[in-house]
Specification:
The complex is a heterodimer of chains A (about 120) and B (about 425).
Chain A: E1 2-10, H1 11-16, H2 19-38, E2 42-47, E3 55-60, E4 63-68, E5 76-85, H3 89-98, H4 100-104, E6 106-111
Antiparallel strand pairs in A: 1-5, 1-6, 2-5, 3-4
Chain B: H1 6-30, H2 35-56, H3 62-81, H4 88-105, H5 112-119, H6 126-138, H7 142-148, H8 153-170, H9 179-201, H10 209-228, H11 233-247, H12 272-287, H13 293-305, H14 307-310, H15 315-329, H16 332-346, H17 348-356, H18 361-364, H19 368-381, H20 384-397, H21 401-415
Classes of the chains: A alpha+beta (about 120), B mainly alpha (about 425).
Chain lengths: ~120, ~425
């Protein structure tokens, strides 16, 4: 089954982190991504630009509204995702727990709609 | 094959439903993780059995017959879906059918424990875990479960459907966890069983048949877990705890329906057989050397029922067990009971001091057992007015009329 691991974290703490902290976090993500590859479960993933770069689009009654900002203004914002392909939820949760994002913020695990 | 009358066929079908329902659901649902579909197919199979067994006779393996028919229903359903989904389901079901044909010659594999672990998975909302186990393992209908848990049938029905959908869509596995995580995951299963027992236990008079059954069914589930995981100390501890409690059922109310506190119960009304079984289980758990909440609570019961023999509970031991329990749970309920044990072991003033030391007074302000304990201890130190006021607060917070009558009686006795 495919699962998406959605990583939410407080952007303020990312911005205020020192250079060495930032490097440590990056290294952790690199190691994690390698581990996913080595296990043969990685099916994709990207890091996203900050939520201040987000633009929201909604069409109502034929009129397109474009708004500056993310869909929901919350302290913790979506910062990236991984797509993994594993046997079941337990395996997905185990990988989510190893994700550096789970210690910095939260990781939401969502099964992918199988077509 | 000899002609069988409809009565026999019905009796056999009912016996199979009682004994094997969970086993059949677990087997049918395991591969596809689709509990709802397994239940539907099984109920169709039972309907078919009631139509065919009276004519053709009860099959040699009723379980195998039901599995085969239910699987055929599931394959039909998968075929109907095939235009929308891939053929993968179909292939897996056919593989299952071969497996089932092989199984018919021997025993039906028992995946009930795996089913229970799926129902009590951390990804399932905690309050629905016990109802879900009762429905899938024991075949309780949602209306019965709803009345036992004091929730409207519509709400309970929705929650059960939502939980089953989550199992299927989120891919919650039907699997007994590995050694390393077994203890933690088993805790949620035991918690769900204990929740079912507590619901049944909260109807002490046993007047509501449904809720009394719930306590019995919880014990049955406890026995099932112990039979499948005979080495797990906490599973043994929970079963012992439930048996100790069940042993005292008959002594909890006077013949007039009045509340009788544990200290005043007639040990002659306790079930010796159940107590002895509980003691043996607790000893077995103790040999493993891994202490936990249920073993401690069972040990408490053991220290209380020792009164059968010695005429008096072993209060110093009770106090020590509460100390250990308080360390694990930090629960105010445990703290209050500990204070009562302190009073029995070292006098009412020491007990009151232990109550006074409790934090979180705001939460205790609305908590009946706190005021009842306080009132009882104040009365024993001779502080009548304070005891009177504490009894008043306890009475105002109690919902069970029998306990209210008991507290009113105690309050009256203060005046004499």
């Amino acid at each position: 089954m495919k699962y998406m691991l959605l990583i939410y974290r407080d952007e303020a703490t990312v911005q205020t982190a020192s250079k060495s902290e930032g490097e440590r976090t990056m290294a952790a993500y690199v190691a994690y991504t390698e581990a996913l590859k080595n296990a043969g479960v990685l099916a994709g993933g990207e890091r996203l630009q900050e939520s201040t770069t987000a633009t929201t689009v909604r069409v109502t009654n034929g009129k397109t509204n474009v708004l500056d900002g993310p869909y929901v203004e919350t302290k913790e914002q979506l910062g990236g995702y991984y797509m993994i392909d594993v046997s079941d939820l337990d395996a997905a949760l185990a990988w989510a727990g190893r994700c550096p994002g789970a210690s910095h913020g939260v990781v939401e695990v969502r099964p992918v709609w199988a077509m | 094959m000899p002609q069988d009358d409809g009565g026999d066929a019905r009796t056999t079908a009912e016996a199979v439903a009682r004994q094997s329902y969970g086993k059949l659901v677990a087997l049918l649902a395991a591969r596809m993780r689709d509990v709802a579909e397994a239940e539907d197919a099984l109920s169709d199979a039972f309907a078919a059995a009631l139509a065919e067994w009276p004519k053709g006779g009860v099959p040699v393996s009723p379980e195998g017959w039901l599995i085969t028919v239910a699987r055929r229903k599931m394959i039909d359903a998968a075929r109907r879906r095939q235009s929308r989904r891939s053929g993968a389901d179909h292939v897996r079901l056919i593989a299952d059918e071969f497996e089932a044909a092989a199984a018919q010659r021997t025993d039906i594999p028992d995946h009930r424990l795996a089913l229970m672990f799926a129902c009590a998975h951390p990804a399932i909302e905690p309050r629905i875990r016990a109802p879900l186990i009762l429905q899938t393992v024991l075949g309780f209908d949602p209306a019965t479960i709803a009345s036992a848990f004091l929730v409207s049938p519509a709400t309970m029905g929705q929650r059960l459907v939502r939980a089953k959908t989550k199992i299927r869509k989120a891919g919650i596995p039907f699997r007994v966890p590995e050694r390393g995580e077994l203890a933690e995951r088993l805790a949620t299963v035991l918690e769900a069983i204990y929740a079912a027992f507590a619901e049944g236990w909260s109807d002490p008079a046993g007047t509501e048949v449904r809720r009394r059954n719930l306590a019995e069914e919880a014990i049955w589930l406890g026995r099932l877990v112990v039979s499948l995981l005979p080495e797990e100390p906490e599973a043994l501890g929970l079963l012992a705890l439930m048996l100790y409690a069940e042993a005292r059922r008959g002594a909890r109310r006077s013949p007039h329906g009045d509340y009788v506190p544990l200290a005043e119960q007639d040990p002659g009304l306790w079930s010796t057989a159940l107590i002895e079984e509980a003691e043996a289980l607790l000893r077995r758990a103790g040999e493993r050397g891994l202490l936990g909440r249920y073993q401690l609570e069972a040990a408490l019961q053991s220290a209380h029922v020792v009164r059968r023999v010695t005429g008096r509970p072993d209060w110093p031991v009770v106090e020590r067990i509460y100390d250990a329990l308080l360390d694990i749970t930090g629960s105010p309920v445990v703290a209050i009971n500990r204070a009562i044990a302190v009073a029995e072991a070292r006098g009412p003033a020491a007990g009151l001091a232990a109550l006074d030391a409790l934090m979180d007074k705001a939460r205790l302000a609305d908590y009946q057992p706190y005021w009842a304990a306080r009132a009882g201890l104040l009365a024993r130190t001779g502080a009548r007015d304070a005891a009177d006021q504490a009894y008043m607060r306890a009475i105002g917070l109690e919902s069970d009329p029998a306990v209210r009558r008991f507290l009113e009686q105690r309050r009256m006795e203060l005046q004499t």
